[in-house]
Task: inverse folding
């Protein structure tokens, strides 16, 4: 799994709330059997009109190389469970998303792809929104966002944090538990 | 000791390993549903690591999201929207074959949308964990299962182990007091819940729907209600199993062989009277009117008898701009271009009967195009046996083959930019039903009434004939 330790980058601010995964990647891009190559599909209908002409949008104003932290309105990644949303953001060059809250399934998908969802309070989000392109550091080891003289703590689910820091694959941990899973199934069989 | 909630009882029954501060719980999965769109990359992970599917017998595959709803041509070729869509279907076939997974293929009389087939075949069991790479897996909670959507990486986890990591969610009980009035359906109840909770009011919670109005619902209605839980951010919604549940499941092919013992065990699945929920809300069922959405998120919903409300912030006003609506406009004055009846939310036989009741002897308005898509092959047969297809066609609607169709608009069924589509599906997100399409979510009855009137319409103002 792709690890996440510390990222220092500029931000791109998108104040829209309730950004659903259909906005992150429209359904017409879901017919792929691959997880790679979805960068062009990220926020497609925000970035381009239907003839492929670029639209006026903050994401189009910056380069993902230098602006790899997305600051977004509340409830980012709600809606469909499509992991393509995390794959597309990753391929587009987004390393972390900062918001006040996230869709449950999106959050779970993101951490499995080395993309860090960072939950902050409204005041911090407002501050970050008010100054787009601000450079900041997200430090997962310390669970801190640092910019200027601000140090904002955030919390990550401990197992996901460990996997991200070590680049460890949760599937290996789950496969180690197969004897327990078998024992559970045997008990269940006996009971029925 | 305090009592347990329905959720806690089901959680405990499926716990392989309890959670600890530094590790999530491991939950056993009783039914894993897969479909063409969210499974290929999961099978790829298995192939890369040389892993087998651990329990193909607890895995069931269907093809639904990108299948054409028009029949095959003279040469037997289906009109797939793109070669990629067809390739994805072929990939699922190959993966199921390689791993010995039962696939309800396009020629299978049992096929249908993933959340239709589990219940229809009796594979959705009370008290079990049901997962699928699809957020509307919450549908199966109608049976008192713990059912939720997962991402593709987790689909791979479940294929390889039949289990998954999960943090224990919080519980929220939604109690409907009293009963709903005539013409008000489970869809309206669900939209009322979402409007009340907001788009993320349910995030982190499992909802339990309770109260007299829920008990009175058929399994079809309960499935509609649970289906929409995700639209309030909740990953799962549940209803305690009861006689209605058992009567629905009895004699279906996939139920446990030891029926009596199973029912006795399922009958213990209810929230104890002294169970404590993390949060509770009550809703006055009698006050619910047929609901429609006016924005770009399911929580932007109001009674069809009302007006477009004033936008409270920039996001809400951007939503109204997208919809081409202004505050104060009567909802019933909104002109409609298309009507879509179908999806795992409202593509069941009961839904189609309601639509037929309103269309019988009437015509779809001249400027409206109406599509009726059954959720499964079984629903299609049943509807045709009852002559409902004739009612739809005589009224000027199109009757199609089963599939997700315009719910996700991946198969070529979609609206044109700027069109207003009244839809019985579950998401009115920007572009969900085609680029620039303006979706209004509604019940099947409201959708049918709107098709006839040509504007958004209250189904209670139209005559129903049987
Ligand atoms: S009908 Fe819609 S919500 Fe249901 S499974 Fe298909 S695409 Fe998903």
Result:
């Amino acid at each position: 799994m792709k690890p996440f330790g510390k990222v220092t980058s500029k931000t791109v601010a998108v104040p829209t709330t309730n950004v659903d995964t259909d906005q992150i990647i429209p359904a017409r891009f879901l017919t792929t059997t691959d997880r790679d190559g979805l960068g062009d599909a990220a926020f497609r209908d925000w970035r381009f009109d239907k003839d492929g002409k670029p639209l006026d949008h903050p994401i189009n104003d910056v380069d993902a190389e230098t602006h790899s932290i997305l600051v977004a309105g509340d409830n980012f990644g709600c809606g469909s469970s499509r992991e393509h949303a995390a794959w597309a953001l990753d391929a587009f060059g987004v390393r972390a998303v900062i918001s006040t809250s996230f869709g449950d399934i999106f959050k779970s998908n993101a951490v499995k792809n080395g993309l860090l969802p960072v939950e902050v309070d409204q005041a911090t989000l407002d501050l970050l929104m008010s100054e787009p392109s601000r450079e900041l550091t997200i430090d997962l080891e310390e669970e801190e966002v640092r910019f200027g003289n601000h140090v904002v703590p955030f919390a990550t689910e401990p197992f996901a944090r460990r996997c991200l820091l070590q680049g460890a694959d949760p599937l290996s941990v789950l496969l180690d538990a197969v004897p327990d899973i078998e024992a559970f199934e045997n008990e269940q069989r006996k009971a029925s | 000791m305090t009592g347990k909630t329905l959720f806690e009882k089901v959680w405990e029954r499926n716990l392989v390993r309890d959670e600890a501060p530094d590790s999530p719980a491991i939950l056993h999965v009783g039914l894993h549903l897969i479909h063409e769109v969210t499974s290929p990359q999961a099978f790829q992970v298995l192939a890369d690591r040389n892993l087998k599917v651990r329990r193909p017998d607890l895995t069931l595959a269907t093809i639904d999201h990108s299948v054409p709803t028009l029949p095959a041509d003279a040469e037997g070729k289906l009109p797939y929207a793109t070669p990629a869509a067809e390739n994805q279907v072929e990939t699922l076939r190959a993966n199921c074959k390689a791993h010995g997974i039962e696939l309800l293929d396009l020629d299978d009389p049992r096929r249908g949308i993933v959340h239709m087939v589990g219940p229809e075949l009796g594979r959705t069991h009370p008290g079990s964990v049901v997962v699928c790479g699809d957020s509307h897996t919450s549908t199966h909670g109608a049976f008192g299962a713990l059912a939720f959507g997962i991402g593709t990486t987790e689909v791979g986890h479940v294929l390889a182990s039949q289990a998954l990591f999960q943090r224990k969610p919080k519980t929220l009980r939604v109690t409907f007091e009293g009963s709903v009035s005539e013409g008000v359906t489970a869809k309206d109840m669900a939209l009322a819940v979402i409007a009340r909770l907001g788009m993320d009011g349910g995030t982190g919670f499992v909802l339990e729907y309770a109260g007299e109005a829920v008990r009175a619902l058929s399994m079809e209605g309960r499935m509609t209600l649970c289906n929409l839980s995700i639209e309030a951010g909740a990953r799962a919604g549940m209803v305690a199993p009861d006689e209605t549940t058992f009567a629905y499941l009895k004699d279906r092919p996939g139920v446990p062989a030891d029926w009596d013992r199973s029912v006795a065990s399922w009958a213990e699945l209810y929230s104890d009277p002294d169970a404590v929920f993390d949060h509770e809300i009550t809703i006055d069922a009698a006050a619910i009117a047929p609901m429609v959405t006016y924005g770009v998120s399911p929580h932007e919903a109001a009674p069809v008898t009302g007006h477009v409300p004033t936008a409270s912030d920039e996001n809400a006003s951007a939503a109204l701009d997208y919809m081409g609506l202004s505050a104060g406009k009567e909802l019933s004055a909104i002109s409609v271009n298309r009507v879509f009846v179908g999806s795992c939310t409202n593509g069941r036989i009961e839904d189609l009967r309601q639509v037929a009741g309103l269309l019988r002897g009437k015509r779809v308005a001249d400027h409206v195009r109406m599509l009726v898509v059954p959720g499964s092959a079984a629903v299609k047969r049943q509807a045709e046996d009852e002559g409902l297809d004739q009612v739809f066609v005589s009224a000027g609607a199109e009757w199609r083959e089963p599939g997700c169709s315009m719910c996700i608009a991946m198969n070529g069924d979609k609206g044109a930019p700027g069109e207003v589509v009244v839809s019985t599906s579950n998401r009115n997100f920007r572009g969900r039903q085609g680029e620039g399409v303006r979706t209004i979510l509604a019940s099947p009855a409201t959708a049918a009434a709107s098709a006839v009137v040509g504007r958004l319409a209250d189904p209670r103002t139209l005559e129903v004939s049987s």
About this structure: The mean pLDDT of chain B is 96. Chain B has 16 helices and 19 strands. Residues 191 and 386 of chain B are 29 Å apart (CA to CA). The pocket of iron/sulfur cluster is lined by residues B 64-65, 113-115, 134, 136, 343-344, 404, 407-408, 425-426 (CB under 6 Å).
